[in-house]
Amino acid sequence: MEQHPTPSLPEHGNFSQVLFNNVEKFYVPGGDVMCCYTLTENFIPRRKDWIGIFKVGWKTTKEYYTFMWAPLPKDLNKESATQQEIQFKAYYLPKDMEHYQFCYVDEDGLVQGTSIPFQFHPDPDEDIMIVINKEKMEEMEQLSEELYQENQELKDKYADLHEQLQRKQVALEATWQKINKNLEQKVEEKASWEEEKASWEEEKASWEEEKASWEEEKASWKEEKASWKEEKASWDEEKASWDEEKASWEEEKASWEEEKASWKEEKASWKEEKASWKEEKSSWEEEKASWKEEKASWEEEKASWEEEKASWKEEKASWEEEKASWEEEKASWKEEKASWEEEKTSRESELLHLEEYNQKITSEKEDLGIRVKELQTQLASQEKEIKELIVRDQEKTEELEKLKKENRLLAVNFTEQKIHWKTLEQTVEMLKEKKAVVQKKKHELKEPKTKATTEEELAREVDHLKAKVEAGRACYIEKYKECQRLHKQIRQLRASTMEAKQDLQKSQQEPVGMGSDQPDTSTVIG
Fold first, then answer.
1. Which has more pLDDT, 94 or 427?
2. Which of 121, 132, 190, 278 could form an SS bridge with 411, CB 3.0 to 4.6 Å?
3. Which one-letter DSSP state was computed for residue 15?
4. Three-state DSSP class for 141?
5. Tens digit of each residue's pLDDT (9 = 90 or more) over 421-457
6. Residue 190: which of 71, 388, 361 has the closest Cα?
7. Model confidence pLDDT, tens digit, residues 31-85
8. Residues 6+ apart with CB under 8 A from 155
9. CA angle in degrees (0–180, nearest 5) for 209-213-215
10. Distances from the Cα of 132 to the Cαs of 135, 136, 410, 415, in angstroms?
11. Does residue 517 register a pLDDT over 50?
C-alpha cells in the first residue's frame, strides 16, 4: 500500500464486469477479511487494478478507507469467468460500526463492480442484557430480536436486489453486444452485396463489349461470305468459259477428224506432198505439244479450282458450325442475362429489405436507449428509497439502542428501589420487634408517664416508617408507569418498521423493466 491509486468519478464505470461472492453481513473486528470475486469473460484485468473498501454513500473513488492491488489471473487468455480472492489484513480495516462495501476499480479509475454492504461488528448473539423484571425484559428482548430480524431481512432483500441488478446488467451487456454483432454482420453482408453488385456491373460491361465484338465479327463474316459468293460467281463464269473452250476444242477435234478423213482421201496427194506435210506435221506436232501443255495447265488449274472449291465448302461448313455455336452462345448469354436481371432485381429487393431492417434496428436501438434511461431513472429512485429506508432503519436502530440504554437505567433504578424497599421492610420488621419488646416491658413499668412517652415515641417512629414505605411505593408506581411508556414507544417503533418494510415490498413489486428479454443498464451507486 505504498503507491495510491488514481481517483475518478464513478459514473463512467460498468458495475457488472466484476461480481463479488460470499460477502458476509458482519465481519468480526480484529480478524483478517477474505474478499472473493469473479471476473466476467468480457472483462480484461490489468496490472494497476485495485480493490478498495468504501463507506456506503461514497461519491468518488478517492473516498476509499483502504485498498489492495488486485492480482492478475494466471491464465489471461481464458475466455470464461475467473474466480479470484484477496485478503485484507485486520490492522488496516475500519474500527467503527458503519456500513461498508467492496469496489473493484480498474487502471483508468473506473468502477467495474461493487458488493453488498457489510459491517465490522461482533456477533449479535454475544450481547448480554441485565434481566430485572424477567417477563417484561424477555418481551422487550423478543421485540428487539424481531426488529433486528426485520432489519436483517431488509438488508438481505437489498442485497438480493443488488445482485439481481448486477445479473440484469450482465444480461443487458450480453444482449447489447449480440445486437451490435448482428448489426455489424448485416453491415458486412450489405458491403459484400455492394461489392458483388459492382463486380456484376463490371461483368455486364465486359459482356456488352464482348457482344459488340461478336457483332463486328459477325459483320466481317457477312462481308467475307459476300466476297466468297462473288468469288464463286467468278469461278462459275470461269468454269463456263472453260466449258466453252472445251467445246471449241471438241469442235476443233471433230474438224481434225474431218480433216483426217480428207487427209486419207488426199493420201495420195499427201504422199506427194509428204515432204511438205512432214514439214507441216512437225509444225503440227509442235502445236499439238503446245496444246497438250495448255491442256495440262488447264487440268492443273481445274484441280486447283476443285481443291479450292472443296476448301471453300469446308470453310463454309466450319463457318456454319461456328455460326450455330455463336447462336447457342448468344441464346445462353440471353438466358444468363435474364437470370442476372432476376438476381439483380432480387438483390435490389433484399437491399431495400436490409435498409428497412437497418432503419428498424436503428429505431429499436433509439427506443432501447430511451427505455434504458427510464430504467436508470427508476433504479436510481428505487436505490434512493432503499438508502432512505436504510437511513431510517439506522435511525430506528439507534433509537432502539437508546431505549435499551434507558431501560437498563430504569432497571438499575428499579433494582435500587427494590433494595431500598427490602431495607424498609427489614426496618419495619425491626420496629415491630421493638414494639413487641416495648409492649412486653410496658407491663413491667409502673409509672404511667413513662409508659405514655415511650408509646408516643414508638408511634411516631412507626408513622415515619409508614411514610417512607408509601414514598417507596409511589416511586415504584412511577417507575412502573415509565416502563409502560417505554413499551408503548417500542410498539410504535415496531409499527413504523413494519410500515417501512411494507413500503419496501411495494417498491420491489413494481415493474423494473420490460422483462427478462429486454436489456438493462448499469447504474451508479452512491
1. 94
2. 132
3. T
4. helix
5. 777 778 778 877 877 777 777 666 655 545 556 667 7
6. 361
7. 999 999 999 988 999 999 999 999 999 999 999 999 999 999 987 777 788 899 9
8. 25, 117, 390
9. 115
10. 9, 8, 9, 7
11. no
Pairwise CA distance, residues 378 & 431, whole Å: 77
Residue with cell 468469288: 231
Compute CA distances 377 → 8, 164, 177, 368, 383, whole Å: 22, 17, 23, 14, 10
Grid-cell match 440484469, residue found: 168
Confidence label for 273 from pLDDT (cuts 50, 70 and 90): low
Residue labelled with grid coordinates 455486364: 204
What share of the chain has pLDDT > 70, as a percent?
85
Gap between the Cα atoms of 497 and 143, Å rounded: 12
Decide the pairing of beta strands 118-120 and 111-114. unpaired
Residue 182's pLDDT is 84
Share of the chain above pLDDT 90, in %: 16
Backbone angles phi, psi at 378, to 5 degrees: -65, -45
Q: What angle do CA 413, 419, 423 make, to 5 degrees?
A: 140
133 has a pLDDT exceeding 60: no
Q: How confident is the model at residue 522 (pLDDT cuts 50, 70, 90)?
A: very low
Element containing residue 124 per DSSP (H, E): none
The C-alpha atoms of residue 504 and residue 157 are separated, in whole angstroms, by 9
Q: At what angle do helices 274-442 and 448-509 cross, to 10 degrees?
A: 170
Short-list 180, 317, 306, 178, CA closest to 235: 306
The DSSP annotation for 127-161 comes to -----SSHHHHHHHHHHHHHHHHHHHHHHHHHHHH
Determine the 3-state secondary structure of 392 from DSSP: helix
Delineate the domains of the chain, giving CATH numbers in brackets: 1-127 (2.60.40.2840)
The DSSP code for 516 is T
- Give the residue among 431, 439, 436 at the shortest CA–CA distance from 463: 431
Give the start-end residues of each E strand in 241-364.
none
Quote the pLDDT of residue 5: 65
Closest among 44, 43, 45, 48 to 16, alpha carbons compared:
43
Full DSSP string of 43-90: ----TT-EEEEEETT--SGGGEEEEEEPPPPS-TT--S-EEEEEEE-G
CA distances from 497 to 149, 244, 387, 404, 490 (A): 11, 139, 15, 17, 10
- Please give the DSSP secondary-structure letter assigned to residue 93: S
